[in-house]
Amino acid sequence: MSEPTSSLLRCASRSHVGRVRLRNEDALRVDAAHGWLVLADGMGGYQGGDVAANLAVDVVLRSLQRDAGVPRDAEAVARIARRAAEDANAEIRRVGVLRPELAGMGATLVVGVFLADKLVCAHVGDSRLYRYADGRLDLLTRDHTLLQEQVDAGIMRPDEARRSRYRGMLTRGLGVAPLLDTDIAIHPVREADIFLLCSDGLTDMLDDCEIAAALGDGGELDEMADRLVEAANDNGGRDNISVILAQCAGVTDNDDGFA
């Protein structure tokens, strides 16, 4: 199984401080040549959230690079993605011990690794992965929050959870505990599919219908990314807003990355 080349994986990314926050505690990295997308959100209320987010994306990319160039199937890449998230968790905790002013820092994480016809996702926290296809937006991750657990248990309706002041209370995150429970999934990829990775600064301001509308207006990925950020800011911009959009226009053999 081989990756799409950089010319066949189109990407656009944006990260905006929003209307309220004084600094941006989100971080993202895109390596279209290898098909690697990484987004992290420094956990609100923790010192050093921006440090944790940048550590997360840097460590994940280094970990992916370490295992690049070796023949892999999707299941093997899933194991590599899980290990990359675990490496990021360990590094955030290590730096937190060495620098007392950063003790307790943490981050969410969503990682996408494109293969020829599949997308491997690693996910911790409430940053999300969506697929937009045929006019329909599907959420491919499940938030690791107390409110999501209440929704799953039937205690709260999804619309109530969106309005709750406690929606940012996480049950999992990088840097929180020595052992990390990472959700891993493998999704099929079609040429027309658009994949969205985003922080909760987008999804707290826009519901899924509004996100779908912004993507459904069409245009280039850069235009879509701009529309999403602008709409989130127009709705209040209460948090940092980060988005990565990716679309695979075709596949071809490539000896780089996970082949």
Order of helices and strands: EEEHHEEEEHHEEHHHE
Summing up helix and strand content along with how strands pair, one would put the structural category as alpha+beta
Q: Order of strands across the widest beta sheet?
A: 1-10-9-6-7
The total count of helices amounts to 7
Helix content: 25-40%
- Tell me what the CATH architecture is: 4-Layer Sandwich
CATH class: Alpha Beta
Question: Could you tell me how far the N terminus lies from the C terminus, measured between alpha carbons in angstroms?
Answer: 6 Å
Strand content: 25-35%
C-alpha geometry? globular
Task: Quote the CATH topology.
Answer: Phosphatase 2c, domain 1
CATH superfamily: PPM-type phosphatase domain
Tell me the total number of β-strands: 10
Number of structural domains = 1
Description:
By secondary structure, the chain is an alpha+beta fold. The protein is 32% helix and 25% strand. The protein is built from seven helices and ten strands. It has helices at 49-66, 74-98, 146-152, 158-163, 200-203, 208-216, 221-234, and strands spanning 9-16, 26-31, 36-42, 107-114, 118-124, 128-133, 136-139, 183-188, 194-198, 241-248.
